Amino acid sequence: MGLRPNIRVLRDMKARQGVLDNEVTRRAYLFVLNTFGRYTRPTTVKNRCYESGRGRGIMSEFGLCRYQFRHLGNTVCSRKYSTLPLTAMNIDTFVITKA
Amino acid sequence: MSFLAWHTAELPPISPLPSGLDPRQLPVKIDFLSDLGPNPSEEAYASALVHGRSIHLPYIHPRTHSIPAGNITFYSHHPRLLALFTHVASHAASSLAIPISKVIMLPTERSLWTVIRAPFAYKKSQENFERKTHKRMIKAWDADPEVIDRWVKYLEKHAMGGVGIRVTKWERLPIGIGKTRLARVKEAFKAPIPNGVSSVDAKLLEVQQEGDSDANRKQAIQALGEKILKEELQTFKGSQKPPAASLGASGNTLATERVHVSADKPQVKGSPKIHAKGNNKTSSTSTSKTKASPSYNSNSSAKAETVTPAKAEQSTSASAPGKT
């Protein structure tokens, strides 16, 4: 009824015009995308623990789940557990400590 | 000094000097390098005979102008490695006569992880782990950028496992660099253009000659889209859907398709009328109007059309009870 339509009405008009104009190109893009298979989508990638294969509780920095990380911190990275002497070759393993 | 004492305890005693050497010509034997005085010369520092020579700090060259030339930051999880490597780096800089600072200790960064102890459930019992990153820095002044590059290259060649290096360098441009650069750019603009081609046309030619330009891509996509539409319409012909007209530039076929699907959208319904009405209206007004405005005008007109019958209906309905 208003002589000057609502701004939202104007936006909707613009949207409808845009859909009308771009439907063809949009269909083309979607067709191209659907020709790719399932394992091309980055969303199919999932971090998993490389030791146990657990899908949850993964810390990306170590590639391990929380239980395996704890095991690492208490055994491999612990000077008390390791019987070998500290040398330049194995110094990089002793990075994480119990806080 | 405790560092020196620790070393002297382990080292064997110094053997006596061989005969035939004049003691007055020999370098000065001192206990500590600090005994040389506040600002020793490099010659005095280098020739001083002091026990545990390689462990001591290098000779620190005095700064000529205190102009920062660069910083090197060292990162490691093990402070012992840092102590060794910073020692090497400072001695290397001293050999290259770069005025450096003493090794600066930056605050240690600590990253913490809290992890549930059990493999399943039991959230209330957790364990904390940490990883410390120790940092040291050496600042350098006054040296030429080439000398700093040489120093950094030496460190990179003899890099230590477990120690990371970050180099920050400053280079200086001569005074008046802005003027010279502007002059060069102006000269480039005044350069002669190829025969028979204006600057704008030349750019367009370059763009068209590229095989992978945006325009070409757009055209390819448009062609693909039309091809897909044709195929879909052919499949529709097999089913019970009505046949559609050929594709036009304005896309009127899409509008007509939608009319069959949902008939309650006034704008799409009256689309042929809208274009005509819009044209009539804009012919009187200025020609510089955008695409949106004719649709606005036409939509208002369409609304007026829809509104008036409703009003008529209302009037009739109002009159009806009035009558009765």
Automatic annotation (TrEMBL), chain A:
Stored Gene3D superfamilies: 1.10.287.1480
Pfam families per UniProt: Ribosomal_S14
A GO molecular function held by the record: DNA binding
GO biological process: translation
Keyword Ribosomal protein recorded: yes
Residue spans crossing the bilayer: none
Organism superkingdom: Eukaryota
SUPFAM superfamilies: Glucocorticoid receptor-like (DNA-binding domain)
GO terms under cellular component: ribonucleoprotein complex; ribosome
Keyword terms of this UniProt record: DNA-binding, Receptor, Ribonucleoprotein, Ribosomal protein
Similarity comment: family membership: Belongs to the universal ribosomal protein uS14 family.
Protein name per UniProt: Glucocorticoid receptor-like (DNA-binding domain)
Organism the protein comes from: Lentinula edodes
